[in-house]
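Consider the tokenized backbone below.
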């Protein structure tokens, strides 16, 4: 039986994955902050640029973390996870160039591994570094919050027409300093010119069809696009995995759950019902945990009561016994319990008075 199902294409509500690339002074940091402000909610900035983002604290309200070298992929993953855990709506990674070519970044890690562990074999070094870089990319793509990244562009100069048949040299950003193909990972990639205009390299939102100065209003348009998915759209792959794991934890029969609701699989759960469904399952898990805890407490109380009865009976046995072998329960029965010492004391007292030992 085929596991492939086709259904009408419906765009879901999404989280932003946007990259800004440009040379020094092109307005990457400020542009990212203005877009995040327009999107709304709490903003976090993970700053590798010597706290340069804090220069704009009077323009946009945000919380700031200064990221220090070494700029390993794992450090950027930690920043993403910390922002998610803290409940931020948008995280700005300023900049991810450092993850690639910064101090302790991927290129430096490869050079170090190639010259030590792999004895000059850079291919062997890449076999270890590429999966680490991929985990960073996946952390961005799978994040539950909006992600905006900045990237430095390699500087170059070109001659442009200055009018009257004259030429002038202009500084431009030609290529983002990150791994080749990084642009494929984002919904929108904008190149910023030296005069702060954003020019689309890739834009699935269709908001940046013409060069523009980045603004809060552009962020508002992004928010509208992100929230314009179909109300009937189904959950995405990450939501499916989360829901499946919750149901397994709650002991819910997934096949019966789907059959009762007319679903082919959990993939058909509607996006708009995802949070409500997860909340309901969390309640079930909590009730199960409370019931388990109550059962554990009841069993503990019953065991304590039984042990108390056994202790009282043992004291009577010791009092009435004429020899240690007459005891219904040996002293070792209480070893490790709160009654161990009392039983040993009772046996010792009996021995002192009547001459037998435990």
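A designed sequence for it:
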């Amino acid at each position: 039986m085929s596991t492939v199902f086709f259904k009408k294409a419906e765009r879901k509500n999404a989280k932003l994955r946007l990259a800004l690339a440009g040379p020094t002074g092109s307005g990457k940091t400020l542009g990212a902050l203005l877009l995040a402000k327009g999107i709304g909610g709490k903003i976090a900035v993970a700053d590798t640029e010597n706290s340069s983002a804090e220069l704009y604290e009077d323009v946009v309200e945000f919380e700031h973390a200064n990221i220090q070298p070494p700029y390993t992929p794992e450090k950027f993953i930690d920043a993403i996870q910390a922002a998610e855990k803290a409940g931020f709506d948008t995280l700005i990674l300023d900049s991810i160039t450092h993850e690639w070519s910064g101090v302790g970044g991927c290129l430096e890690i490869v050079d170090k591994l190639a010259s030590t562990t792999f004895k000059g074999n850079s291919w062997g070094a890449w076999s270890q570094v590429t999966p680490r870089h991929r985990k960073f990319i996946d952390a961005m793509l799978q994040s539950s919050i909006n992600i905006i990244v900045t990237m430095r562009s390699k500087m170059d100069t070109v001659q442009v027409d200055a009018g009257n048949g004259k030429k002038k040299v202009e500084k431009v950003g030609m290529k983002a300093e990150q791994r080749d193909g990084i642009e494929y990972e984002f919904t929108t990639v904008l190149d910023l010119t030296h005069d702060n205009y954003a020019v689309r390299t890739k834009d699935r939102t269709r908001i940046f069809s013409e060069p523009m100065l980045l603004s809060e209003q552009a962020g508002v348009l992004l928010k509208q696009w992100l929230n314009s998915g179909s109300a009937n759209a189904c959950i995405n792959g990450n939501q499916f995995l989360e829901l499946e794991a919750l149901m397994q934890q709650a002991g819910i029969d997934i096949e019966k759950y789907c059959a009762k609701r007319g679903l082919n699989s959990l993939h058909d759960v509607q996006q708009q019902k995802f949070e409500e469904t997860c909340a309901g399952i969390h309640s079930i898990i909590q009730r199960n945990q409370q019931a388990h805890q109550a059962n554990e407490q009841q069993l503990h109380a019953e065991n304590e009561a039984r042990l108390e009865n056994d202790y009282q009976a043992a004291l009577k046995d010791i009092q009435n016994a004429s020899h240690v072998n007459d005891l219904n329960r040996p002293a070792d029965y209480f070893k490790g319990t709160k009654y161990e010492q009392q039983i040993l004391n009772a046996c010792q007292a009996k021995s002192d008075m009547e001459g037998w030992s435990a």
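The mean pLDDT is 89.
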